[in-house]
Design a protein that fits this description.
- With about 325 residues, the protein is mainly β.
- It has four helices and 22 strands.
- It is globular, with a radius of gyration of 25 Å.
- The termini are far apart.
Length: about 325
Amino acid sequence: MDKMKQFKPAPRVSTDTRLREATAGYPPELSRGIRRSKLPENQVHERNSYRIARPPEADGLMRRRIKKLSIIILVFTFAASCSLNPFGGVSSAGGMLKSSDSGDSWELKSRLEDGSALGSLGVARTRLDPSDKNRLYLASFTKGVYQSSNAGDNWKNVLTGSRIYDLQINPTNGQEVYAGGTTGNAAKLFKTQDGGATWTVSFSQSSASAFVSAVALVPGDSKAVVISLSTGEILRSVNSGTSWDLLKPVSGRVLKIFASGINSNVYFALSRREGLYRSTDAGASWTKLSLPGATGQFLGGSQTFEDFTLADSESVIYLVGSAGVFRSRNLGNNWEK
């Protein structure tokens, strides 16, 4: 009885405070799925009758995010002038920022093999080898392709004499890389099967101004490659670049092509000035996607567009442009800003 008198209940803390403490460190999309539920009265619990119930996908998503963050986080600033940058925009001197502790601290990594700085390059694209967390490739529209085998600490030039605007790494074979751009007066797609030691030309088209502006690999088909030219032409190869078929073109310079991993007939193509196009027949035809709430008004006009990505099993599209960020929850049929 004396022991019971000495017992002091824990200070009262609001439910919201308990939940905030319990969910600290969770990304917003997971913390939104947290719910409260009463425990049996005879069960002791340090959060005083509440437990945290995570959505089923929480553990998998957290593990994937932690793995990605613990490997490497990359941020690029560029040192190319507007006249050299084919995609427009103003650039400033810099290099690569690398974090190995989920963004708590950052290091500038900009050492090239010739002693110059990474910020001196005109960088169009970077890719991380999915089969080797330490290997990265960089597409430069001034000096070709660079490779790092130590997570960005040092870089070496593995393809010279060309301007490269995009590249893709085979997700099932990190030694196979496609790099698109131009050499002299020809639009070209280069391919390496030994991690950049040697390169062959998979596509070439004589042109004084056109270049290969975007490259995409078709998920689930290691031999299917889709490329676009800066003129809006789109081509596909089903034999790793040995031969090519011309698909329906789109208007304007294409910055990015995406091939769906869920439906092999669905492609997306982003034009810098015309906006986002969608194909549901593997490029045989294209639909120009319209603005939210504006019948007949297309995602284009006076706007320019920089990038897009698909999330949540390809059910959500995020589109970045000069007018802001747009989101579609139904593959581009409707949008919200």
